[in-house]
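User: What would this chain look like folded?
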Amino acid sequence: MLGVKLLAADVGNTNITLGLFEDARLVGSWRATSQATATADEVAALVASMLSLDGYQLDELDAVALASVVPPLTETFERFFRTRFGLEPMTIDAATLSRALPIEIDRPAEAGADRLCNALAARTEFGAPAIVIDLGTSTNFDIVSAEGAYIGGAIAPGLGLSLEALVGYASKLPRIELRRPPRAIGANTIHAMQSGTVLGYIGLVSGLLTALRAELVERSPTDSRVTVIATGGYTYEPWLADVPGIDAIEPDLTLRGILYAHQSIAGGEIASDELAGSTLAGGAADR
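Assistant: Here's the prediction, encoded as C-alpha cells.
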C-alpha cells in the first residue's frame, strides 16, 4: 500500500524549500528562489517542476502544509492547491500551533512560522532545552526552554545579506566569494572582505550563541544540557565547523518541524522514529 504523501513548504523571503514526506519519511527536498509576486500558475509550474526532478507528481499529494513568512505567497499557494487539486493547505502559525508548542513571548502572533517549526522539531528530536541556529537570509536563534516552550531568541542579518549591504553601499568594493580567507589579516581587498564577512560572521554567531546559552542555562534545572542544532541554507559551508558549541547539523530541520506541526494539528501523534538520524557537528567540515 502506498504511503500518505505530505508536501511541506517552507516559504521564505529568499528561498522556497519543499519537502515531500511519505508516512513521515522525507523522500525528497528541493529549493528555489522566492518571488513574492508569483502567480498561482507560476507557483504551479515551480512546484510541479521540482517534484518531477525525482519522478513525483502533484496529483500524488494527499496533504500540504505551509510555513510561510511571505503573506502574498501564502495566499497564492493556498489558492493554487485549493482550486486546482481540491486540497486545503494547512497554514502553520502561532495560533494553530498553540496546543502543540507553548509560545511564551510577548506577542505570539509575531513569531515566524519557520521559527516555531524549528523549535518544535528541536524539542521533538533532541529534547529540551535547545537552541536552533537557522542560517539563512537572516540568522535566527530559536530557543526552547527546559519546559519545552518556545521563549524567543535573536535575529541578526544573514551572511549573504550583510555582504550585499556592504557591496551596495561601498561603490569600490567588489562582489566576492563567501569563503574563509587564508588569514584574518587580509593583504588585499578580497581577503580583507572575506575576513570581515566570513570570520566576522563566525564571531557574531559564536558570540550570540554564548550569550543565549548562558541565559538559557540560568533558567534551566542544574542537570540540564542545552543542545544546539544548526539548520538553514548555510549549513553546508565548511566554515560552520569553526563555530564552537554546535551539536548537530540538520539542513532539513524546518521541513521536519512542518511535518510535526501537521501531525499535531491534524490530531495525530508526533513521531520521529522513522526519520534519519542527526548529522553530528564534528562532520561538518566534510559537507
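Helices lie at 40-52, 71-85, 94-97, 113-126, 159-169, 189-218, 253-265. If you want, I can go into more detail on any region.
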